[in-house]
C-alpha cells in the first residue's frame, strides 16, 4: 500500500471553516431562508419596504448576487483542491472570504448605506 505524497495536514480550528463548502453552503441556506419570506411579505404588500428596486427585481438581485455566489464558491472551494491536488483553503483565509461575502449581504440590507436612486422619471433602462 502506498501513501500519497501530498496528504492534507489536519485542521485543528473551528469545524465550520475546515472545508470551503461548509460556511458558504450554510450561509446560502440561511440567506435564502431569510430573504425568500421577506420577499413574499414585500410582494404581498405587508409592510413598507425602502428597497432600491421593485420587489421582483430585489428578489432577483438577492438570488443572483447573494445566494448563487455562495453556492458556486462553496462548490469551487471543495472541487478545486480535488481537481488540482492542492490543499484546500481553511481557517483564517476561509473566514476572511466568508466575512467578505457576509459583509456584502449586511451592507446592502442597511437602508442608510444604500445609495440614493434618481427619480424614476430620469432612469434609463
Write the layout of secondary structure elements.
Elements: H1 21-44, H2 55-84, H3 91-109
Helix pairs in contact: 1-2
Describe the structure.
It is built from three helices and no strands. The termini are far apart. The protein has a domain at 21-33 and 61-111. It has helices at residues 21-44, 55-84, 91-109. The longest helix has 30 residues, at 55-84. It has 125 residues and is mainly α. Helix content is 58%, strand content 0%.
Question: What gap, in angstroms, lies between the N and C termini?
Answer: 64 Å
Provide mean pLDDT, rounded: 79
Shape annotation: elongated
Content of β-strand: under 5%
Structural class label:
mainly alpha
* Low-pLDDT regions: none
Spell the H/E element sequence: HHH
- Total number of helices: 3
Q: Helicity, in percent?
A: 55-70%
Question: Total number of β-strand segments?
Answer: 0
Sheet with the most strands, sense and barrel status:
none
Task: Give Rg in angstroms.
Answer: 19 Å
